[in-house]
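Notebook p. 47: complex prediction with nicotinamide-adenine-dinucleotide.
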Amino acid sequence: MPLKLIDETTPDGHERLLFAEDEASGLRAYICIHSTAYGPAAGGCRMWNYASKDDARHDVLRLANGMTSKNAMAGLSLGGGKSVIIGDAAKDKSEGLFRAFGEAVHSLAGSYYTAEDVGISPADMAIVARETPYAVGLEGGDHGSGDPSPFTAEGVFQCMKAGIEELTGNSDLSNQRVLVQGLGHVGMSLAEKLHAAGARLLVSDINEAALGRARVHLDAEVCPVDAVFETEMDIFAPCALGGVLTRETAQKLTAKLVCGAANNQLATAEIAEVLRARDIQYLPDYVVNAGGIISVAGEIHKAGPKYREERLAGVALRVREVLAHSLQSGKTTTMVADEMVEGILSRAIVNQKGAA
Ligand code: NAD
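Predicted complex, structure tokens below:
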């Protein structure tokens, strides 16, 4: 049986939603293109053990939408898209599965570029790339950008320094107590940078080995997973899961700044107002964590390191702009950032119409 590709109806604002199914390899995946107003859509592929096909559909729609905002704010000529493979990344990977996924990506003829996200490694992406040139985040070659995580961490670190400078007039992190939640690909790299910068490091993870490494090599103090919101800190860096800031945790959080890599840190949009009312400055996740997609964009455009460095520096500049405007206007940082994205996208649409 060949690969089955089914176009599903999309909610308003999303351009395309494709369900790919391959009986031989067991592939069941969604690819969503939210917008190509600013260029071909780009966004990673996530492999996750979703409880249902509906859960996967909901996630891909939400994540693809988020990529449009992220790419626009990062100043990339790329639209927003995302893909999700339904399955257990520890058990269900196979060459056939990734080749079938590559075929599905290729069927979109370059309107969507895929790369690594949660559960997907550069080795997996290398298999996808045998079927399509629209797979990036590859290791080696002239323009291969490899694992995007170190660049995401660098962007978060630069934003943290910019954020603290906006608040205190000094970007020095050496007196700041920073809690990194999640010591995975991004969180550990961020923790290393914070340690080198002399920050007082607190770390929290469910992975004992990662905690051990941070304790031994980075002089980190371990915070139990269920004590994060009871702990004194200056800066909170969520680098594990989304939805960690709820009405309850936002009321308890002791930090003055939130700056981390996790996508969708606010459980619901109104949490931004809870934080603002408590004088906690939240640096919007999709602005802060763009380093990875910037690295991937360099590969798509076959650009040199200068392309990446300039855009990475731009992330911290954008964060300063968002924070300064929020402090001055009393609007939440998410409201300010969302308005900036709307402005960028509406200009792109006008330019597209003008060119047509
Ligand atoms: P990862 O899977 O490598 O790391 C996640 C870490 O969080 C793991 O160490 C895990 O043990 C830990 N964790 C899980 N549950 C936890 C809990 N309850 N409390 C504390 N720690 C917990 O993922 P990653 O690539 O480092 O990404 C981290 C986050 O950043 C994700 O939300 C991801 O979507 C987002 N993000 C990553 C990138 C990137 O370049 N990797 C880019 C943008 C956004």
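Notes: Residues 298 and 308 are 6 Å apart (CA to CA). Residues 305-329 form the longest helix (25 residues).
Next step: compare against the earlier run before touching the bench.
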